[in-house]
Give the backbone structure.
Amino acid sequence: MESSAEEGTEFPRPPLEFTDRAGHDIRITAYDGGPDPLAEMYLDYDDDSRAQGLPPRGEAQIREWLDDLLAEGLSVAAWHEARVVGHAVLFPYDETAELAIFVHPEYQTIGIGSRLIRVLLGYGQANGLGHVWLAVERTNLVAMNLYKSVGFETTVRDRAEHEMELEL
């Protein structure tokens, strides 16, 4: 298992290839394509797979959301064969960027998310980002543990969600 990051840690840059715990050969790349492969992944999300209202419901809403993310953010995608099975994005705001990460429901808990987030942070470092934050539902302990494992610290706690930050 990879250890927690300390401030100033260099994270891996895309592309990255590895075999997940289920035996899938996964390739993580910088993503600068159109919305179609990502939309296909997000259309598979049911209500139990959504967090904080994301991804949106319905193809038109997903595509509109993706248009904004792809136009402004730095994205990486995890591929299994020709299928996107994970997507992570850093969406810039002034001196910081908000992180969002999604792994296809059928590919969760097999090691893709931890690699995907590390490669995204490396991609952010390579593009000059120095600070990242995110919001996570306080009941989503799997996600919170993932974020802590790469060095995020909780900065705001409330009844519904926590905010976490990381200096790159």
